[in-house]
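re: that chain from earlier
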Amino acid sequence: MNIIISNSSNIPIYEQIKEQIKSKIVSNELKENELLPSIRTLAKDLRCSVITTKNAYEELVKEGYVKNVPSKGFYIAKINKEIALEEQLSKIEELLDKAVAIAKMNNIDKKTLKEMLNILYEEEK
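^ sequence. v structure.
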């Protein structure tokens, strides 16, 4: 599983892991009943603490994206993809609202903002 952690981000590592796994679930890259890597394996792969990966998995369980099967591991839970996607879109909208507000405060026009978004979006591919 390809997860990228940014040590320079203000977002805690467990949160970065959680959000990337949620994104993979919503996009159907991870499918219902698929087994996730063990807490130790993921921690080793990401070079982070097992506590960090444990926290990420526990949050995913609380939010209903993952189920813990004792002695077997963590599996992708059955979720309503539309509701999950709507949650992600809401987060994006909130962040875009902040970006637009900053742009307006600094007299940055919409064309420049769109150009920045296009560049950032293409870099992610």
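Strands lie at 66-69, 73-76.
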